[in-house]
Amino acid sequence: MTAQSITAQQTYLQVLPPDLDRARLPKHVAVIMDGNGRWAKQRGLPRIMGHRRGVDTLKDLLRCCRDWGVEALTAYAFSTENWGRPLEEVDFLMTLFERVLRQELREMMSENVRIQFVGNLQALPSSLQDEITKAVETTRNNPGIQFTVATNYGGRQEILQACRSIATKVQQGLIDPSEIDEALFERHLYTAGNSDPDLLIRTSGEMRISNFLLWQVAYAELYVTDTLWPDFNRAEFHQALSAYQQRDRRFGKV
Ligand code: FPP
Q1: For residue 97, which atom of ligand 1 is closest to its CA?
Q2: Which of 128, 148, 239, 246 has the largest CB neighbor count within 10 A?
Q3: SS3 state of residue 69
Q4: pLDDT tens digits for range 52-68
Protein backbone atom coordinates (compact mmCIF):
# COMPACT_ATOMS: atom_id res chain seq x y z
CA MET A 1 0.00 0.00 0.00
CA THR A 2 1.34 3.45 -0.81
CA ALA A 3 1.70 6.14 1.86
CA GLN A 4 -1.10 8.03 0.13
CA SER A 5 -3.56 5.13 0.25
CA ILE A 6 -2.70 4.40 3.90
CA THR A 7 -3.57 8.02 4.74
CA ALA A 8 -6.75 7.74 2.65
CA GLN A 9 -7.77 4.62 4.56
CA GLN A 10 -7.08 6.23 7.94
CA THR A 11 -9.19 9.25 7.01
CA TYR A 12 -11.95 7.00 5.68
CA LEU A 13 -12.05 5.10 8.96
CA GLN A 14 -12.49 8.31 10.98
CA VAL A 15 -16.14 8.39 9.95
CA LEU A 16 -18.74 5.63 9.72
CA PRO A 17 -17.88 3.55 6.61
CA PRO A 18 -20.53 4.24 3.95
CA ASP A 19 -21.57 0.58 3.59
CA LEU A 20 -22.79 0.55 7.21
CA ASP A 21 -26.34 1.63 8.00
CA ARG A 22 -26.27 4.18 10.83
CA ALA A 23 -29.83 3.33 11.84
CA ARG A 24 -28.93 -0.33 12.38
CA LEU A 25 -25.73 0.06 14.36
CA PRO A 26 -25.54 -1.82 17.66
CA LYS A 27 -26.26 0.62 20.47
CA HIS A 28 -24.07 -1.35 22.85
CA VAL A 29 -20.96 -3.37 21.95
CA ALA A 30 -19.21 -5.67 24.44
CA VAL A 31 -15.69 -7.06 23.94
CA ILE A 32 -13.75 -10.01 25.32
CA MET A 33 -10.21 -8.78 24.75
CA ASP A 34 -8.41 -12.09 24.33
CA GLY A 35 -4.96 -12.86 22.90
CA ASN A 36 -2.66 -10.32 24.55
CA GLY A 37 -0.36 -13.05 25.85
CA ARG A 38 -0.17 -14.82 22.48
CA TRP A 39 0.48 -11.54 20.69
CA ALA A 40 3.46 -10.90 22.97
CA LYS A 41 4.72 -14.48 22.73
CA GLN A 42 4.69 -14.35 18.92
CA ARG A 43 7.08 -11.41 19.19
CA GLY A 44 9.31 -12.94 21.86
CA LEU A 45 8.08 -10.33 24.37
CA PRO A 46 6.86 -10.78 27.95
CA ARG A 47 3.06 -11.21 28.25
CA ILE A 48 2.70 -7.85 29.96
CA MET A 49 3.73 -6.13 26.72
CA GLY A 50 0.61 -7.60 25.14
CA HIS A 51 -1.55 -6.08 27.87
CA ARG A 52 0.17 -2.74 27.43
CA ARG A 53 -0.53 -2.80 23.69
CA GLY A 54 -4.06 -3.98 24.48
CA VAL A 55 -4.75 -0.71 26.26
CA ASP A 56 -3.95 1.23 23.05
CA THR A 57 -6.35 -1.02 21.13
CA LEU A 58 -9.09 -0.42 23.67
CA LYS A 59 -8.57 3.34 23.60
CA ASP A 60 -8.88 3.41 19.84
CA LEU A 61 -11.96 1.19 19.86
CA LEU A 62 -13.61 3.52 22.36
CA ARG A 63 -12.84 6.51 20.12
CA CYS A 64 -14.03 4.59 17.07
CA CYS A 65 -17.35 3.77 18.78
CA ARG A 66 -17.75 7.46 19.53
CA ASP A 67 -16.75 8.51 15.98
CA TRP A 68 -19.11 6.03 14.34
CA GLY A 69 -22.09 6.52 16.69
CA VAL A 70 -22.10 3.46 18.99
CA GLU A 71 -23.53 4.62 22.33
CA ALA A 72 -21.97 2.16 24.78
CA LEU A 73 -18.89 -0.08 25.01
CA THR A 74 -18.24 -2.69 27.69
CA ALA A 75 -14.79 -4.33 27.98
CA TYR A 76 -13.84 -7.43 29.99
CA ALA A 77 -10.62 -6.29 31.64
CA PHE A 78 -10.27 -8.80 34.50
CA SER A 79 -12.37 -11.82 35.35
CA THR A 80 -12.86 -13.40 38.77
CA GLU A 81 -10.85 -16.34 37.34
CA ASN A 82 -7.89 -14.13 36.36
CA TRP A 83 -6.64 -14.09 39.99
CA GLY A 84 -5.29 -17.57 39.15
CA ARG A 85 -2.60 -16.05 36.86
CA PRO A 86 1.01 -15.66 38.04
CA LEU A 87 1.26 -13.05 40.79
CA GLU A 88 3.53 -10.76 38.74
CA GLU A 89 0.97 -10.64 35.91
CA VAL A 90 -1.93 -9.90 38.30
CA ASP A 91 0.13 -7.17 39.98
CA PHE A 92 1.06 -5.73 36.61
CA LEU A 93 -2.57 -5.62 35.49
CA MET A 94 -3.76 -3.94 38.72
CA THR A 95 -1.02 -1.30 38.40
CA LEU A 96 -1.79 -0.88 34.70
CA PHE A 97 -5.52 -0.26 35.36
CA GLU A 98 -4.63 2.29 38.03
CA ARG A 99 -2.10 4.10 35.86
CA VAL A 100 -4.34 4.17 32.80
CA LEU A 101 -7.23 5.59 34.84
CA ARG A 102 -5.03 8.30 36.33
CA GLN A 103 -3.47 9.20 32.97
CA GLU A 104 -6.65 9.13 30.90
CA LEU A 105 -9.08 10.96 33.18
CA ARG A 106 -8.41 14.36 31.66
CA GLU A 107 -8.88 12.98 28.13
CA MET A 108 -12.08 11.17 29.13
CA MET A 109 -13.41 14.49 30.41
CA SER A 110 -12.50 16.35 27.22
CA GLU A 111 -14.07 13.57 25.12
CA ASN A 112 -17.19 13.40 27.31
CA VAL A 113 -16.74 9.71 28.18
CA ARG A 114 -18.80 8.41 31.11
CA ILE A 115 -16.87 5.56 32.73
CA GLN A 116 -18.42 2.89 34.93
CA PHE A 117 -17.04 -0.29 36.52
CA VAL A 118 -18.84 -3.57 37.05
CA GLY A 119 -17.62 -6.44 39.20
CA ASN A 120 -16.69 -7.14 42.80
CA LEU A 121 -14.71 -3.95 43.24
CA GLN A 122 -14.22 -4.30 47.02
CA ALA A 123 -11.68 -7.07 46.41
CA LEU A 124 -9.42 -4.80 44.31
CA PRO A 125 -6.36 -3.02 45.77
CA SER A 126 -7.56 0.05 47.70
CA SER A 127 -5.44 2.46 45.62
CA LEU A 128 -7.18 1.12 42.48
CA GLN A 129 -10.56 1.45 44.17
CA ASP A 130 -9.73 5.11 44.87
CA GLU A 131 -8.88 5.78 41.20
CA ILE A 132 -12.07 4.00 40.13
CA THR A 133 -14.21 6.09 42.48
CA LYS A 134 -12.54 9.28 41.28
CA ALA A 135 -12.96 8.45 37.58
CA VAL A 136 -16.60 7.37 37.99
CA GLU A 137 -17.53 10.42 40.09
CA THR A 138 -15.70 12.88 37.83
CA THR A 139 -17.21 11.58 34.58
CA ARG A 140 -20.68 10.81 35.99
CA ASN A 141 -22.52 13.57 34.12
CA ASN A 142 -20.62 13.39 30.83
CA PRO A 143 -23.09 13.18 27.94
CA GLY A 144 -20.90 11.11 25.57
CA ILE A 145 -20.26 7.40 25.21
CA GLN A 146 -20.86 5.09 28.18
CA PHE A 147 -17.70 3.05 28.80
CA THR A 148 -18.08 0.12 31.17
CA VAL A 149 -15.05 -1.79 32.41
CA ALA A 150 -15.67 -5.25 33.87
CA THR A 151 -13.02 -5.71 36.56
CA ASN A 152 -12.97 -8.66 38.96
CA TYR A 153 -16.16 -9.53 37.13
CA GLY A 154 -17.91 -12.90 36.94
CA GLY A 155 -21.36 -13.40 35.43
CA ARG A 156 -22.34 -16.17 37.85
CA GLN A 157 -21.13 -14.16 40.83
CA GLU A 158 -23.14 -11.17 39.60
CA ILE A 159 -26.29 -13.28 39.38
CA LEU A 160 -25.67 -14.75 42.84
CA GLN A 161 -25.21 -11.34 44.46
CA ALA A 162 -28.44 -10.16 42.81
CA CYS A 163 -30.23 -13.22 44.26
CA ARG A 164 -28.80 -12.51 47.72
CA SER A 165 -29.83 -8.89 47.58
CA ILE A 166 -33.38 -9.75 46.43
CA ALA A 167 -33.69 -12.54 49.03
CA THR A 168 -32.69 -10.11 51.78
CA LYS A 169 -35.37 -7.67 50.65
CA VAL A 170 -37.95 -10.47 50.57
CA GLN A 171 -36.92 -11.45 54.10
CA GLN A 172 -37.33 -7.83 55.22
CA GLY A 173 -40.78 -7.73 53.65
CA LEU A 174 -39.72 -5.08 51.10
CA ILE A 175 -40.42 -7.29 48.06
CA ASP A 176 -43.09 -9.94 47.55
CA PRO A 177 -41.79 -12.99 45.59
CA SER A 178 -44.58 -12.46 43.04
CA GLU A 179 -42.98 -9.11 42.12
CA ILE A 180 -39.71 -10.74 40.99
CA ASP A 181 -39.63 -10.34 37.23
CA GLU A 182 -36.86 -9.64 34.68
CA ALA A 183 -37.01 -5.88 35.23
CA LEU A 184 -36.66 -6.20 39.00
CA PHE A 185 -33.85 -8.73 38.64
CA GLU A 186 -31.94 -6.46 36.25
CA ARG A 187 -32.12 -3.63 38.76
CA HIS A 188 -30.07 -5.82 41.14
CA LEU A 189 -27.29 -6.60 38.66
CA TYR A 190 -24.03 -4.59 38.55
CA THR A 191 -25.21 -3.33 35.16
CA ALA A 192 -28.51 -1.88 36.49
CA GLY A 193 -29.71 0.88 34.19
CA ASN A 194 -27.54 -0.15 31.21
CA SER A 195 -28.95 -1.55 27.99
CA ASP A 196 -27.97 -5.14 27.13
CA PRO A 197 -25.15 -5.55 24.58
CA ASP A 198 -26.41 -5.99 21.02
CA LEU A 199 -23.08 -7.32 19.78
CA LEU A 200 -20.45 -9.32 21.67
CA ILE A 201 -17.03 -9.48 20.02
CA ARG A 202 -14.39 -11.97 21.11
CA THR A 203 -10.88 -11.82 19.70
CA SER A 204 -8.32 -14.63 19.23
CA GLY A 205 -10.70 -17.32 18.08
CA GLU A 206 -12.12 -18.98 21.20
CA MET A 207 -15.85 -19.75 20.94
CA ARG A 208 -16.64 -19.15 24.60
CA ILE A 209 -18.53 -16.64 26.75
CA SER A 210 -16.12 -17.17 29.69
CA ASN A 211 -18.54 -16.03 32.43
CA PHE A 212 -19.00 -12.60 30.80
CA LEU A 213 -22.38 -10.82 31.13
CA LEU A 214 -24.25 -14.14 31.26
CA TRP A 215 -27.66 -12.58 31.87
CA GLN A 216 -27.12 -9.59 29.59
CA VAL A 217 -25.97 -11.39 26.41
CA ALA A 218 -29.14 -13.50 26.18
CA TYR A 219 -29.96 -12.00 22.75
CA ALA A 220 -26.59 -10.49 21.75
CA GLU A 221 -25.15 -11.35 18.34
CA LEU A 222 -21.79 -13.09 18.76
CA TYR A 223 -18.80 -12.28 16.56
CA VAL A 224 -15.53 -14.16 16.96
CA THR A 225 -12.38 -13.24 15.07
CA ASP A 226 -9.02 -15.02 15.02
CA THR A 227 -7.27 -11.65 15.26
CA LEU A 228 -5.45 -11.21 18.57
CA TRP A 229 -6.69 -8.30 20.69
CA PRO A 230 -3.66 -6.00 20.21
CA ASP A 231 -4.17 -6.27 16.43
CA PHE A 232 -7.92 -5.52 16.54
CA ASN A 233 -8.28 -2.21 14.71
CA ARG A 234 -10.93 -0.06 13.01
CA ALA A 235 -10.89 -2.19 9.86
CA GLU A 236 -11.57 -5.28 12.03
CA PHE A 237 -14.37 -3.45 13.84
CA HIS A 238 -15.80 -2.48 10.46
CA GLN A 239 -15.91 -6.19 9.55
CA ALA A 240 -17.63 -7.05 12.84
CA LEU A 241 -20.27 -4.38 12.27
CA SER A 242 -20.82 -5.52 8.65
CA ALA A 243 -21.38 -9.07 9.91
CA TYR A 244 -23.75 -7.75 12.59
CA GLN A 245 -25.79 -5.84 10.01
CA GLN A 246 -26.21 -8.98 7.94
CA ARG A 247 -27.76 -10.85 10.88
CA ASP A 248 -31.50 -11.23 11.23
CA ARG A 249 -32.23 -10.44 14.89
CA ARG A 250 -35.46 -12.21 15.74
CA PHE A 251 -35.34 -12.29 19.57
CA GLY A 252 -37.00 -15.71 19.53
CA LYS A 253 -39.77 -14.64 17.16
CA VAL A 254 -40.27 -15.80 13.54
C1 FPP B 1 -6.69 -11.42 27.82
O2 FPP B 1 -5.55 -11.81 27.08
C3 FPP B 1 -6.54 -10.07 28.37
C4 FPP B 1 -6.60 -9.72 29.70
C5 FPP B 1 -6.89 -10.68 30.76
C6 FPP B 1 -6.37 -8.33 30.14
C7 FPP B 1 -7.03 -7.29 29.31
C8 FPP B 1 -6.75 -5.95 29.86
C9 FPP B 1 -6.40 -4.88 29.11
C10 FPP B 1 -6.26 -4.89 27.64
C11 FPP B 1 -6.15 -3.59 29.80
C12 FPP B 1 -7.42 -2.76 29.85
C13 FPP B 1 -7.19 -1.53 30.64
C14 FPP B 1 -8.17 -0.76 31.20
C15 FPP B 1 -7.81 0.40 32.04
C16 FPP B 1 -9.58 -1.03 31.03
P17 FPP B 1 -4.73 -13.08 27.57
O18 FPP B 1 -3.68 -12.62 28.52
O19 FPP B 1 -5.67 -14.08 28.15
O20 FPP B 1 -4.11 -13.58 26.25
P21 FPP B 1 -3.76 -15.09 25.88
O22 FPP B 1 -5.06 -15.84 25.84
O23 FPP B 1 -3.13 -14.97 24.55
O24 FPP B 1 -2.84 -15.60 26.95
Answers
A1: 15
A2: 148
A3: coil
A4: 999 999 999 999 999 99
CATH tag for 26-154+196-245 (out of 3.40.50.300, 3.10.180.10, 1.20.1250.20, 3.40.1180.10): 3.40.1180.10
Query: How many CB atoms lie under 10 A from the CB of residue 14?
Result: 11
Catalytic: 120? Answer: no
Q: Is 165 exposed, middle or buried (0-12, 13-18, 19+ CB in 10 A)?
A: middle
Q: Are strands 114-118 and 146-153 parallel, antiparallel or unpaired?
A: parallel
Active site residue 233: no
- 154-191: per-residue pLDDT in tens? 999 999 999 999 999 999 999 999 999 999 999 999 99
pLDDT of 8 higher than 80: no
Pocket of ligand 1 contains residue 227 by CB under 6 Å: no
What is the residue type of 253?
A: K
Q: Is 98 in the pocket of ligand 1 (CB under 6 A)?
A: no
Contact 240, 181 (CB under 8 A): no
Per-residue pLDDT at 70: 98
Residue 3 has pLDDT above 90, yes or no: no
Pocket of ligand 1 contains residue 33 by CB under 6 Å: yes
Cα dihedral across residues 233, 73, 65, 207: positive or negative: positive
Residue ranges of domains in the chain: 26-154+196-245
Active site residue: 60, 67, 82, 233, which one?
82
Closest Cα to atom 1, ligand 1: which residue? 34
CA of 197 to the centre of ligand 1 (A): 20
Q: What is the pLDDT of residue 72?
A: 98
pLDDT digits (tens, 9 = 90+) for 112-126: 999 999 999 999 999
